[in-house]
Amino acid sequence: MSAAIYNAEISAGSLMLPESRRVARFMLTQPDRATWFDTLRTENILQKKSPATARRQARLIRNRLETLDEQAWQLVAEGDQELALQILLAASVKHSRLLGDFMRDVVAGHVRRFEESLVPSDWEAFLADCIQRDPAVAGWSDTTKAKLLQVVLRILAEARYLESTRSLHLTPPLLHPEAQRYLKSRSEAAVLAAMELTN
After folding, report:
1. Gene3D superfamilies under this entry (predicted)?
2. Among candidates 105, 26, 102, 86, which has minimal Cα distance to 58?
3. Which of 72, 163, 184, 199 could be 193's S-S partner, Cβ–Cβ 3.0 to 4.6 Å?
4. Each residue of 57-75: pLDDT tens digit?
């Protein structure tokens, strides 16, 4: 049986800039496994009311950041807001094939055709394509699909590819020179293409 191409892990949260800055700073201290769990439990670094939510979001952020290296963690921890968000978007694209493919297949397609906004039917059409690549997607519940759409749109709005999750008006940003430099220096051509909407 072939491995799944897509997973729904991204549903645990959007780019979460303040939380990601805290996790990136913590990861730069090279915590061992015990320190990681102890700090999450005792210090509540994500400042969440629910320990379960804190654990789930911290795991998602860490998994995203681990797709990049310590220099990226530093940019997330200390960079200006635009730069930090774009590095987080790059990490999210690397971590979630679902997000990357949506940007490549749907958002880039709209931009190429000079269409100003996404439309609700885009998501259903995209998921139908995903099922062709990974039949397991057909087994996702309607609730999961709706939650994934909500998170993907929030990520695009936070990264300024959308004016808002309500209007769905496309406003693709120029890549921050430092984010561009970092991704080029790491030969992240596929991630750059997804973010620049060029493929």
Report:
1. uncharacterized protein from magnetospirillum magneticum domain
2. 26
3. 199
4. 889 999 999 999 999 999 9
